[in-house]
Each structure stands twice: as C-alpha cells, then as structure tokens.
Amino acid sequence: MTLPTLVLRNLTFHWFGNLAVLLGVMVSSAVLTGALLVGDSLRGSLRAKAERQLAGIESVALLPRPIRMEIANELPGNPAPALILPATLESVGTNATTTKYLGRITVLGVDSRFP
C-alpha cells in the first residue's frame, strides 16, 4: 500500500470526523476574521472620537506644581494654561433626602486662550 492510497482510505473511512474538523476550522476562521474587522472598526471610531474631544490640542505638559505665567509665556507656540482638579459635585435639594452626588469629575480652570 502506498502513502497516497493510505491517506485516501483514511479520509474516506473517517469522513464524518474529518468533516467536523473542516467545519470547525471554517467557523473559527470566520469568527476570527470578523473579530479582527470589528476590532479595526472600533479602534478607528475610538480614535476619531478622541481626536474630536481634543479639539486641536497637539501636546500637553502635566506638571506636578503650577508654574509662573512669565515662564509659560516664554514657551513656543503660545500655550494655553489650564488648572486641572479632581472634584465631587453635590446638589442639595430642599431636604436631606433629595441630595444628589456626582463623583469623579474633573474641573478645568482655563483662560481665553484655551480652545
């Protein structure tokens, strides 16, 4: 018996198992291809949303302490200063039961140069 004959007999005798493996490979290939396409689409839409939210901001310097305006005015590109603070918002109603909280917000202190 030659090798091609052995392979052909194996394929015909175990056709049901081979068909199941073939279908499994086809389904998994389709799922992976779809996941890659959806992932690329999601990445593109998230990038577009982030660029819209940046509103033309090209670079940011987050410093541990504020710097003087004289130093900031000497930087190239006319930077817009901003003070960024974490905060919690509280809305007090007419009685204590209607008080509402909104936590983990960011307060921006900016001047007219900010876009």
How would you sum up this structure, described in words?
- The structure is a single chain.
- The protein is an alpha+beta fold and 115 residues long.
- Helices cover 49% and strands 18% of the residues.
- The chain is built from 3 helices and 2 strands, in the order H-H-H-E-E.
- Strands 1-2 form a two-stranded antiparallel sheet.
- A hairpin with an 8-residue loop joins strand 1 (82-91) and strand 2 (100-110).
- The longest helix is centred in the first third of the chain and has 40 residues, at 15-54.
- The radius of gyration is 31 Å and the shape is elongated.
- It starts with a helix and ends in a 5-residue tail after the last strand.
- The model has no long low-confidence stretch (mean pLDDT 85).
**Structural class estimated from helices and strands:** alpha+beta
Q: How widely separated are the two ends?
A: 80 Å
Strand order of the largest sheet: 1-2
Average pLDDT for all residues: 85
Q: Ranges with pLDDT <50 over ≥5 residues?
A: none
| Total strands | 2
The ordered H/E elements are: HHHEE
